[in-house]
């Protein structure tokens, strides 16, 4: 099974609203990352949060990490049509130098 | 930097044919990853290299798949013989450190008829 699992699988909101996506994982991690994938494109890194951090901001993005619950959330504020994409969380696994990606949340912003 | 470069961008082939996908990582990155993405299975790590050496190929589905990295600026993923179930988008990514930020190429969309 996936190390990271996103919730919900799909989310549709109106432009200007906030979008929240969640990620749960199973084992201890060193860091957790969020990526965006526009249709037909490769994944693009958004933000990395380390295991000793609880919250991180980047522009309209806010990421939280709760290691006790093994979960993270990505908040996109004041959403725009251009935010329409799939969003993936990724975590390292067991000290190996690789990431495991979740199945993603498909976000649709309606104008 | 031009980012991670993959070729071809699209490949249509017939079952049984050999397929070779190519990747040029970002200069200076020590790690290179090959992924496969399908609707059913999501994004799967096939194999990754560190300093041109294969470290973990546990994700390679079967012996029909092979990957090489002859130097720091080039890697190939080969499927021989190809089958319809290999149809997917194949991504190459590179990073400075294994668990750091990964930079993805645009992907190769493979269709095996």
Q: Using the CA coordinates, give the radius of gyration of chain B.
A: 13 Å
**Low-confidence segments of chain B, ≥5 residues, pLDDT <50?**
none
In N-to-C order, the SSE pattern of chain B is EEEEEEEEEEE
Question: Quick one: how many beta strands of chain B?
Answer: 11
Characterize the overall form of chain B.
Answer: globular
Amount of helix of chain A: under 10%
Tally of alpha and pi helices of chain A: 0
Which shape of chain A, going by the Cα principal axes? globular
Average pLDDT of chain B, rounded to a whole number, is 95
| Multimerization status | heterodimer
Question: What's the overall average pLDDT of chain A, rounded?
Answer: 92
What's the helix-strand series of chain A?
A: EEEEEEEEEEE
How widely separated are the two ends of chain A?
A: 36 Å
Largest sheet of chain B: 7 strands, mixed
Helix percentage range of chain B: under 10%
Number of strands of chain A: 11
Biggest contact: A-B, 22 and 23 residues
Task: Please give the radius of gyration of chain A in angstroms.
Answer: 13 Å
Strand portion of chain A: over 45%
Taking pLDDT < 50 over at least 5 consecutive residues as the criterion, the unreliable ranges of chain A are: none
């Amino acid at each position: 099974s996936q190390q990271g699992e996103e919730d919900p699988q799909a989310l549709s909101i109106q432009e200007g609203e906030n979008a929240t996506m969640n990620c749960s994982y199973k084992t201890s991690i060193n860091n957790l990352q969020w990526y965006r994938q526009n249709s037909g494109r490769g994944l693009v890194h958004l933000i990395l949060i380390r295991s000793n951090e609880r919250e991180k901001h980047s522009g309209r993005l806010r990421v939280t990490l709760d290691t006790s619950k093994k979960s993270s959330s990505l908040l996109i504020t004041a959403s725009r049509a251009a935010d329409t994409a799939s969003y993936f969380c990724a975590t390292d696994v067991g000290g190996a130098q690789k990431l495991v990606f979740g199945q993603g949340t498909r976000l649709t912003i309606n104008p | 930097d031009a980012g991670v470069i993959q070729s071809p961008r699209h490949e249509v082939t017939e079952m049984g044919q050999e397929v070779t996908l190519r990747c040029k990582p970002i200069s200076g990155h020590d790690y290179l990853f090959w992924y496969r993405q399908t609707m059913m299975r999501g994004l799967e790590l096939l194999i990754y290299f560190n300093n041109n050496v294969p470290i973990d190929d546990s994700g390679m589905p079967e012996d029909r798949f092979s990957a090489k990295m002859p130097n720091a600026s080039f890697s190939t993923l080969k499927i021989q013989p190809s089958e319809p179930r290999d149809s997917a988008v194949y991504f190459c990514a590179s990073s400075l450190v294994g668990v750091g930020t990964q930079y993805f190429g645009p992907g190769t969309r493979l269709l095996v008829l």
